Structures
1.
Amino acid sequence: MRTIVNQPEVFLRQKGIKASFQRVRIFDYLQNSREHPSVSKIFEDLHPHIPSLSRATVYNTINLFLEKHLVIPVPVEGTEARYDLSEPIHAHFFCTGCGQIFDIDTKAFPLPAELKDFDVTETHVLFKGQCPQCVGKTSS
Amino acid sequence: MRTIVNQPEVFLRQKGIKASFQRVRIFDYLQNSREHPSVSKIFEDLHPHIPSLSRATVYNTINLFLEKHLVIPVPVEGTEARYDLSEPIHAHFFCTGCGQIFDIDTKAFPLPAELKDFDVTETHVLFKGQCPQCVGKTSS
DNA sequence: ATTCTTGCAAATCATTTGCACTTTA
DNA sequence: TAAAGTGCAAATGATTTGCAAGAAT
């Protein structure tokens, strides 16, 4: 269960990020989105409400959030990067039918013995297939 | 442990793929590579030996191999796709220091109950961090 | 006033496409 | 010789960069 930050400006400052209008809006968007959005999606959804917003600013902001570890890239292959707020370990399910990415609760993955000399900082588990809404539909 | 195909032309035909010179070379390259290479890497390594080779052919071939399920994309974020020959389930470790991707043997990941109505066709486990060679070095 | 942020446009990089030429069954 | 494969160059799409103008401290 995600913890919603209700004072994003304070939260951003604590992370060493100056809380500009655009950054707060993008952070709010990420908090309220469950779709692990791409930069394009963020831009297209916010642009109508912030007409002056530029794609470059969304890229700048996401890259800043990445540096400060507020967001992580969801490791799905494909041409467009998708992002998620950093959270305790959880898995993702990527639907090859509709492209949605679902959060899946899961216990921590037991670390294989092979990795004992590695410094493991992140674990990602990705399932792929069809979600219940897509299972019925043709898949040709 | 990977099974090496020593008659790639026969193998490709069995998969319904016409065994052109370039395709056999690219398949051989994938078999002998342990680096989960990108298209650029494949191209740059083969080009000196096959001067006529074109990047487009490498893309065509990889896309064909993907269709025929000979290779799978390794789901790491980043701007360049990386590929692996299809294999029984295993995990990957991505080193944020040197960019190497290691194969890690692992038991099948137990399917979370949440996914009972999903059609799960693939499971990917990705660990990230620093490999033993990079752990010592500065990380600023 | 200095520093950081934004927004535009141009640049870059990965990937795809269109098409003419070559290979091969 | 028809069908499929290759290679080049141009097109597309995502992302980054350079820079001038704007906002914040």
2.
Amino acid sequence: MCNMKYPFESIELKWQKYWKDKKVFKTDLTKVDNKLYVLVMFIYPSAAKMHIGHWYNYGPTDTFARYKKLKGFNVFEPIGYDAFGLPAENYAIKTGIHPQDSTLKNIKDIRTMLERMGGMYDWDAELMTCVPEYYKWNQWLFLQLYKKGLAYRKNAPVNWCPSCQTVLAREQVLADGGCERCGTTVIQKNLTQWFFKITEYADELLEGLNKIDWPEKTKTMQINWIGKSYGTEIDFAIEGSNEKIRVFTTRPDTLFGVTYVVLAPENELVQKITKPEYKDTVDKYIESIRSLTEVERTSTTKEKTGVPTGAYAINPINGEKVPIWIADYVLATYGTGCVMAVPGHDERDFEFAKKFNLPIKKVILQPGTKEEDELIEAYTDVGIMINSGKYNGLSSDMGIEKISDDIEKQGLGKRTVNYRLRDWLISRQRYWGTPIPIIHCDKCGEVPVPEDQLPVVLPYEVNFKPDGGSPLASCEEFIHTTCPKCGAPAKRDPDTMDTFVDSSWYYLRYLNPNYNDGMFDTELANRWVPVDVYVGGAEHATMHLLYARFIHKFLRDIGLVKSDEPFQKLIHQGTITNQGAKMSKSKGNVVDPNEFLSKYGSDVFRMYLMFMGPYELGGDWSDKGIVGVDRFVQRTYTLFENYKGIASDTQAKSKYEMNELSPDEKKIYQKVNQTLTKVETEIDNFRFNTAVAALMELLNELKNIDNCRKEIQLYTLERLASMLAPLAPHLAEECWSLLGKKKSIYEESVWFEADSEALVNETVTIVVQVNGKVRTKIELPVDTPEKDVRNFVFNDDKIKSYVDGKQIIKEIYVPNKIYNIVVK
RNA sequence: GCGAGAGUGGCGGAAUUGGUAGACGCGCUAGACUUAGGAUCUAGUGUCGCUUAGACGUGGGGGUUCGAGUCCCCCCUCUCGCACCA
């Protein structure tokens, strides 16, 4: 018995070099039969090290890609770097190291780690977003959007992170009001900013979800984020004024129940309609609201506040006069910023009316209650309309249609659709990003940079220390230019783009990162996109994954791609935590993979990460079980060492007849083939933990492989090496060559089909139960006729002792599984 | 508060359509080989009884069923997502 320890270091290097030298993983993109685009979200090189989370993301995905390659797919698995962004710049502010220098260095280190991991990446397709060759096309994309009116500038209240010194899109603000990147509480600021009109695609983004194979949860999040709702806009006249209040409601059926109207404090009508004697309190109230953050204001737990304006509105349906209030629970940014309040049938209005003693009117009768019953809470479901004039007696869902019809007929309003989705704020007051290709000219206004002048290169020499404004604004050489239209001196836009712009189309660029004639090679994109399997964190559900879908649809509309969606199937890996907390540098609880890599090697490490549990669940980090995987690897290596060179003088058939095998051979033969199907279905479904377990079971079963004929030994070991290859690529290559194989397992894409005849066992264990309790088990040939099974069962002494003298009520036989006798 | 998911040995976790609960691994126990073992191999390992028969057992309580980790109802805990969207 040879017991040499598996020399992972030399073996891993050896095969990495082999793959690289022979370009084993270079994908021939011209071949599209059997194409499979497997993509993992590219890496953010804010630190030189790949932590456990990266390994957990990339290792298993690579295993999936490798498995598909072995199965004969033409797999494209690229990797790249999401290289722009705040952390590099913040790091620069702290240390003085230029973002470009630190980023390029980090990329170099990460590349080394990815190679060490044994990633099957096509290194010819590698890209990074911080080079002009890439970001030039961000600018080009911007200009296309601009041409179509989908990139525009507006003055708006925006989310400002005081720490990052920049604005954030709404989805980049956390639920607790913190900044997505740094956690600092975000405040509101009024600024002119660039937006992409994602709302133009709201409906399509919603509908497209039906066509893609994504986790339901993620789709739901996007649905909620888009927040489409059907309703009616209704005009309320203002007493003694020509102004009108247009409200948006999803419940026009409750129009008779309106007892007051509420405006958002920011609504411009407020200043116009407020009665002089109320002006003081209204202004004071608005001031008090301003000091609150968005989150404080919209917190559902906070008690609602508001003040009357002294003005009155006229309910168009019955001419009733109702007071106009302003309140913080009405948002200026949703609907029309005005609400008709129906306390009887809306929880928020109910709470508000109770607090300020406003009347509550019942106009929808809850089934099973009486009209005179007092409302103790708002009734928001369907019911029978009451106190509603000619609509009385109608079901309220009918009432929605009828009242909307009548409102429309009388020109008092119209049906509309509202979205929660807002346009995507893309400007950032930061240095390390793509410059916005716009020039501001005193005479011509905003002028797009002509396409032939792209890229607008990000200058290297810039003072990027924070002083409140965009760093580029103080870079004289950059900012001063001439107007492309009139030639007069003009200024460049000093802002840079959100890095989510970069990641919205990178999957198209991978196909040819050096392409010069356009944003990407359209021909290739139409053959390879959508991405077949996309793997990445669930935290991108409403950001990256929504933006990328939007940009993809836009690119389709300008004729650059034919597909509707960028990512056909989506998988989220789980999060690896440490003692229950997310690993982060600031918490100081990051686990360094290097410790394990130097002790066990990368095959063991990546296999252990897969073995820990279900991929989509993640879990708490613990190195407790890693020795188990290491032992498995050692035993496997030893086994192959013992059969060194076996392939040189032996040949295995591709299939054996079961009856020509010895008992030991048969057992092993069956197990090998059963494992083949098991490993296939498990990896196909990203269940790596059970795939590894299946291989461990197989190895345990190979105790008696010495008793097999040589050809059966070879038959077995060939298959074991092949199944091992996706999970432990270096080890498997080594084992394969130990057998005496000349070529790499991946050069030939070795995968074996299971022999279906070996999958079923000849005998089965039939569990015999009495009253549902297991009493004995009997081993019988598969498909023994029921009457024979019954005979065996009733001749069993133990069963007899349970059944004798009792009345048999029922017998249930589930073929090849269970025989249950019910007695009394 | 609303929505989604989860709760299984000392631990990580397995378990087609309801059909042997605890695969695989860690840990632990005993033994073998050894100068030694924190290496390796062999056997055992849900709990109680502990030799047997057996009883109990998948967060708690109830139900459907010949049979429930799996289906239904109620409750508890945890994780994630959304936070007044009219």
3.
Amino acid sequence: MLTVTTVNVNGLRAASKKGFVPWLAETAADVICLQEVRAELDQLPVEVRAPEGWFATYAPAAAKGRAGVALLTRREPDAVRVGFGSAEFDTSGRYVEADLPGVTVASLYLPSGEVGTDRQDEKERFMAEFLPYLVELKGKAAADGREVVVCGDWNIAHQEVDLKNWKANQKKAGFLPEERAWLTRVLDEAGYRDVVRTLHPDVAGPYSWWSYRGKAFDNDAGWRIDYHMATPTLASRALKAYVERAESYDRRWSDHAPVTVTYEQ
Amino acid sequence: MLTVTTVNVNGLRAASKKGFVPWLAETAADVICLQEVRAELDQLPVEVRAPEGWFATYAPAAAKGRAGVALLTRREPDAVRVGFGSAEFDTSGRYVEADLPGVTVASLYLPSGEVGTDRQDEKERFMAEFLPYLVELKGKAAADGREVVVCGDWNIAHQEVDLKNWKANQKKAGFLPEERAWLTRVLDEAGYRDVVRTLHPDVAGPYSWWSYRGKAFDNDAGWRIDYHMATPTLASRALKAYVERAESYDRRWSDHAPVTVTYEQ
DNA sequence: CATTCTAAG
DNA sequence: CTTAAAATG
């Protein structure tokens, strides 16, 4: 059994003050993929920089206070790689992967974007570069007889069922036709499986992100943008999935909820 | 009797959340000179933007969130003037004056500065422009048979007795020889009186500012940089002076304390 | 609406 | 150490 959690922490320093530390102490996960750490190593409290019982692999962004991904693993990885061979993005704190026995686990933080801005152009460049890498990653892993799961904040809701207000968001970044089509290519061309959707084909959501603005959380006006994208064999071994939505607005320590999948080994 | 208070609020929005509002409700002052308001009018809660029983004259800086002075008067001023005829400083939220019967009261926020920076150059330019204005102001007032008091944060401690650690601060902005000499000229050349010092010639302080850094407040490592500079006749009418140091670190609503003087009329 | 950085103090 | 803005999400 391998339990993998992914969660965008929206600033690990802030999250650590609001409940991330006890959450970490109680989780049953074997691997945790973090996004939006937004800190240098030495800015983090020691309980999260080097948590007891975990191996921590941090990939901060070159720009202070931005992005940043990490992997927490209960056992030491056989290998760790930061970035995916992109001159533009490898120092931007958006991708890290680790080899564990039989499986490569990655933490991805895809750029956010907003229509008509440079950020959206950046998001599109990332998508264009990252899709071929997914294909390559899957090929290398297959040659090695290993499975792959790329977890993280993909910043795109795939289908209408993946966000509460899909009608109002058809021209919004995160639910644009071209972004949705790109996610379809991740599945159909690169050959990954959306593990949570595969386990729960017909439910709305389960959402994993609610804006801090307005009453989005209380109205459950959420988006499903945090995914486990796994190679088919690993996906077929998924036993259960769970989105850990906080009980109330003020018990949250991030605007995202942890998304956990348990895989049979 | 005319009671005048001056206080640098270090952000009136923050101060309003921490105790400025009840302080204002209970003060016996007739005129309050505020510095470092750091807000536009419409960013302020209505209880301070238009407090009941007061006339409020705000002179915000053109730069958002910076400087800003104001006058609160229990009666409506006969006239109000923003700035002192300086192309550089009249829109910088550093000076406002109001005519009340027999007396002109001004709120001044002299630039802060730091040795070796552009800010210090700015402070020096302000000083160079402001001294002649003080002379002019006094002359016009005399011709009109009125007194003058320029209250505010002058950002200079005059003598060794005006700050706790004068030895360690001899090369620090706020206690440089040239700044101290300039304050002497305000007294000797422009002919103003330092009202609080005149009433209390021999005491240490009373300090009106304690840095937020370190334990400055608890150690009373303060500076006397907030002054009532009055024309001699008005100064001679000062009956008592009072610096309202907070009872404890966390009952403060600013790093400065209100400095209040009661004048006989 | 929240996090972090920066400039300023 | 604190305020407030700005950029980002």
